[in-house]
Amino acid sequence: MRILLAEDDPLLGDGLQTGLSQLGFQVDWVRDGVAAERELRAGVHAAAVLDLGLPRLDGLDVLASVRRAGIRLPVLVLTARDAVPERIRGLDAGADDYVVKPVDLQELAARLRALVRRAHGQPQELLRVQGVELDAASRSVRLEGELVQLSTREFDLLHALLLGAGRVLSREQLEQQLYRWGQEVESNAVEVHIHHLRRKLGAGLIQTVRGVGYRIAPERPA
Questions:
Q1: What is the CA radius of gyration of the chain?
Q2: If DSSP codes are grouped into helix, strand and coil, which group holds residue 80?
Q3: In 3D, which of 51, 35, 49 has the Cα closest to residue 86?
Q4: How much is the pLDDT for 90?
Q5: pLDDT (average), residues 142-153
Q6: What is the pTM for the complete model shown?
Q7: Is the dihedral of CA 67, 70, 71, 75 positive or negative?
Q8: Residue 48 Cα distances to 5, 62, 100, 130, 189, angstroms
Q9: 125: pLDDT confidence band, cut at 50, 70 and 90?
Q10: Where does the record place the Response regulatory domain (predicted)?
Q11: CATH classification of 2-119, choosing from 1.10.760.10, 3.40.50.10320, 3.40.47.10, 3.40.50.2300?
Q12: Does domain 126-216 have CATH number 1.10.1200.10?
């Protein structure tokens, strides 16, 4: 899951980027409000962690601006402004959640996972389809109850497809979810990961929509 981190404190930003990366997130880090607004408008991230006290452009102004532009990306506000009126201002400006510094890293990760699930209409923590069960918290996948070993990229690709079950995702969209800034992407990387997932989880799980991309069909109600 690729997220945007907007934080100007170098020590905190480095710690959050490192810690969230160790928990399975792909983290792009910006250090001012102008850069944060630009990246939020780019629409390549699954969610954002936004500090309010950013230089060049305040976090509240960033948030209000992107919401006026119709951008619905889940945004978790992270700030030292813990007064109730400040929290209300953040939520009214369009924040989806609000965490006061210092924050527990595991809690932050859980809140991000929950925000992304809800944004995709997936209220349950476990994503299930066709006998496949994915647990984002433990980064584990089971097929008919049996644990399946996946690489980091394979897991992230499957996660993106399950979150968007029923939607066709292009190769470019999937690459955006798998790789953060500066990471080299092989031209056939997505196709290779799809091949491995089909081998491990069944050939019929991931459908190819020729000339468009890939999808996983949603589970039909019993």
A1: 18
A2: coil
A3: 51
A4: 84
A5: 96
A6: 0.89
A7: positive
A8: 6, 12, 15, 31, 25
A9: confident
A10: 2-116
A11: 3.40.50.2300
A12: no
